[in-house]
Amino acid sequence: GTLIRDQPGLGRLQLADFAALVRDDIPDDLQQWVQPVGSLGRMREAPDELAFQHTLSTVLYADMEQMPVSGLRLFHRCKWEWLRQRDRAAALAQRQGRRRAGFLGLINKAEWSLPLGLATLQPRWKSEYRRDRPFDLRRPLAESLEQTFIVLWTQPLLAERTRVSYHAHYGRQLFDTQLQVGAELGRFWMLEGQREEIDQDFWSWVMAAQLTNRVAYQGYQLVTRAGLQWRQRRFARAQDQRDTMFFMTMHAGLR
Questions:
Q1: Residue 35 vs residue 214, higher pLDDT
Q2: Are the C-beta atoms of 68 and 102 separated by less than 8 Å?
Q3: Cα(109)–Cα(125) distance, integer angstroms
Q4: What is d(CA 201, CA 188) in angstroms, rounded to the nearest whole number?
Q5: In the chain, count of helices (H) and strands (E)?
Q6: Interval 20-29 mean pLDDT
Q7: How far apart are the first and last CA of the chain?
Q8: pLDDT class for 161, splitting at 50, 70, 90?
C-alpha cells in the first residue's frame, strides 16, 4: 500500500507499506568488501544466513518534506523493517536465529539557504538514528545516534559568463564557475552493542574546498570539479585518525 499527500502548511507526505509471507531456502552467498574496526578493509565471504526461510516480513517507509519559510527546507524519513520467524523453537535454535529481528532508521535534515549578494550561505543539520536487531544470534544488537552540522559557502566566479539559468527554489543565476567552501562537525554515539565497522563514540571534523567549472564543448556539457578535503576523527578509546585528499573529476553529457 502507498499514500502520497500534499497538505498546505504541512508539506508533502509519502507512506509505503509492504508485508509478505516468505519461504526462501535458496542461499545467495556473496563476496563483500568489509571495513572492520581498527584494520584494513578487505574482501570477505558473506554466506546467506537465510533469514527468510519461513518468515513474516513487514517494511514500513515514511517520508515528509516541508518548507515552513522561504529558503528553509526540512526532511523527515523513517524506515521500519520487522521479521518474525515462523519455524518451531527447536528448528530456530538449530539455525542460531532470533525469533524477532529487524531494523529501525530515522533521519531528520534541515537546510537553510541565505543569499548574500551573489554568494549563498547554507547552514545544514542532519540527525541519524539507527537500531539493528540481526537474525543471527552470534551478531550483537546495535543502536546508534549521529548528529552532523554543516556550513557551506558558494561563491560564483567570472560573473561576465553568467548563463540564463536558475537554482531550483532560490531564483539564483547559475554561474559557469563557482567556488564552494564547507566545514562539517559530527558527533557519533554508540548507544548499545557494536557493529563490525564501529564500536565506540567519536567526534569528527571535515574541511573541504571545491572549484566547479561548466563549459560547452562539441555539443556536450563538460563539468570539471577539483578540490581538497581534510578530515579528522577523534575516538573515545582508539587512536585518532587524520587524512587529507585531493580530488579531480570530469563529466561530459548532453544538455
A1: 214
A2: no
A3: 6
A4: 5
A5: 1, 14
A6: 92
A7: 37
A8: very low
